[in-house]
User: What shape does this take?
Amino acid sequence: AAAALSGLMPRLIGVGFKRVPKFGILLGLSFFMGEDGSIGVKAAFGASVLSAPFINPIRMIEKQQRAFFKTTGVEKPIMEILRESAKQNFVPLFRGTVPLMGHSCASALLGLAGQPKLQKYLKEELSQHGIGTFTSGLLASAAVTPIYVGVTNPLSRLEVIMQTSKIDGKAIGVIEACKEVANDSKQFGMRGIFRGQGLGIAKGILSLTAFHQGRIWLTDAFRDRNISNGSYTPKDKVGSA
Assistant: This one.
């Protein structure tokens, strides 16, 4: 149980913290690009790249705790990791930022921008068969997630290799990490790159569906509230008002 929960605290903090820069930048870019509430490719890409430096330190701490627990059986305190990083001006906390940018970009393009478009298409095509918002969202997530996991698993492996090396030791660069993944694939075949895909797909389908259903519910709730108090008028009613 201790091994399964190692790194849980920074993970919980990271899940909440990374939403602030990622979605803050996403909403800001969407507003300035005039995307009118829809999530476009440019905004998703920009948010992924610009938010990576804010998210990476949290992920680095997670990986350090797991690596330390694996070798010692004891969870490494967060403050100790920060003190070790401070000796090098906190530069080690940004190891793995490049693969994280690629990972976040794939997540944003497929999960944030792609899934809603596919859901809308499926709902329009299958509405005659009684398929509603939730079911179409689940189907869209099931279609998008395997592609997402296939793209991001190799990037996640690079992150792990770069972020689990000792903070006070030699840093592993992107090229070195790629060589290690290549050697891994030679030894174990494609399993060396695509480890844990089954669990990743199952988790991705559930989390992506839950995220977008929550987003749709909140959007509808705030829209209805704004319409009822007169602070917003839908475009189709502007002319008739």
Notes: The CA atoms of residues 8 and 150 lie 25 Å apart. DSSP finds nine helices and no strands in the chain. The first helix runs from residue 2 to 5.
